[in-house]
TrEMBL record:
The name this protein goes by in its record: Sugar ABC transporter permease
Record keyword Hydrolase present: no
Residues that span the membrane, as ranges: 30-53, 90-111, 123-143, 163-182, 223-248, 277-297
InterPro entries to which the protein is assigned, alphabetical: ABC_transporter_permease (IPR051393), MetI-like (IPR000515), MetI-like_sf (IPR035906)
UniProt organism field: Cohnella luojiensis
Pfam family, one: BPD_transp_1
Bilayer disposition of the protein: Multi-pass membrane protein
Protein localization: Cell membrane
Family assignment from sequence similarity: Belongs to the binding-protein-dependent transport system permease family.
Cellular component GO terms held in the UniProt record: plasma membrane
Keyword Transmembrane among record annotations: yes
PROSITE patterns, per database record: ABC_TM1
């Protein structure tokens, strides 16, 4: 009889101990996650909330902010230069991504062959990606200089005369694209090289036995096998293009005739050159649909690769 009475009490006591342990573990988890959440809130969430608040404000001559409703959003809708900057950004993105990724794949294929000095060239081709954008822009500013640039010296030797690389609206965008492609190729070449080296050699041996030439092996084996890393680099190129401002700022300052005015440069100009921080905040929020769309594509590609 005594055992029957004590058993439930013992069980209930054990349950209380387990419950207390679970609560302790739960609070321990919150304690570990708390600092990370605090950093995330301070560095990401609060700035986003502040930008949204600023988008409904107008900065006065005294430096104060006054509520102006949706005036900034109405201005954004009727701002042709903002939409031109988006077109310029997309032009730069497509051009630099296509040229840079093509060059990176070609370099990776060449470096994958056991040519003499391949390790040295791997390091050499990777250097531009770790070089500061400011240093890169200053180097190309000297190369493309209309009077003393190396490119114009070469064109004069070939009989084409001097070319205004950075003063012609069409050539200025082309020059910026080449600079972006040069940096992108240096970063992506090691990625493609690693992907190519992971392809089983048996596939190439079987293709060679069947009579497939090198170009056929590339399109039927190499290219399909590196599609996952290619998708990743394309998405990263799109994201990086919307963050590109230093090269444009130093090479062309958005000109000539706003032909190289990319979106981030335009936002910077409105906020820090014209002291219109409220409108600059609105312009930055206008990029959210585009960035959400790019993120959605990236998530679909990642989920498809995981499946």
């Amino acid at each position: 009889m005594t055992n029957r009475v004590k058993a439930p009490a013992t069980q209930s006591g054990a349950m209380l101990i387990r419950t207390a342990g679970r609560r302790r573990n739960r609070w321990s988890g919150y304690l570990f996650v708390g600092p990370a959440l605090l950093v995330l809130m301070v560095t990401s969430i609060l700035p986003i909330v502040y930008v949204v608040w600023m988008s409904f404000q107008e900065q006065t001559l005294a430096g104060k902010f006054e509520f102006n409703g949706i005036a900034n959003y109405d201005k954004l809708i009727h701002d042709p230069l903002y939409f031109k900057s988006i077109v310029n950004t997309l032009t730069y993105t497509v051009g630099s991504a296509a040229l840079g990724l093509s060059a990176a794949i070609l370099l990776a294929v060449v470096l994958n062959r056991n040519v003499k000095g391949s390790k040295f060239f791997r390091i050499l081709f990777f250097l531009p990606s770790v070089t500061s954008e400011v240093v890169t822009a200053m180097m190309f500013l000297w190369l493309l200089d209309s009077n003393f640039g190396l490119m114009n010296y070469m064109t004069e030797q070939m009989g084409f005369g001097r070319i205004n690389w950075l003063l012609d609206p069409t050539l200025a965008m082309l020059s910026v694209i080449i600079v972006g492609a040069w940096r992108g190729a240096s970063y992506n070449t090691p990625l493609f090289l690693s992907a190519i080296q992971n392809i089983p050699k048996e596939l190439y041996e079987a293709a060679a036995i069947d009579g497939a030439k090198s170009i056929q092996q590339f399109f039927r084996i190499t290219l399909p096998m590196i599609v996952p890393i290619l998708s990743y680099t394309i998405i990263m190129a799109f994201i990086g293009s919307f963050q590109m401002v230093a090269i444009v700022d130093l090479l062309t300052n958005g000109g000539p005739l706003d032909s190289t005015m990319v979106t981030l440069k335009y936002i910077w100009r409105q906020g820090f050159e014209f002291n219109n921080l409220g409108y600059a905040a609105t312009l930055s929020l206008g990029l959210l649909p585009i960035l959400f769309f790019i993120t959605w594509i990236q998530m679909r590609i990642s989920n498809r690769g995981a499946a």
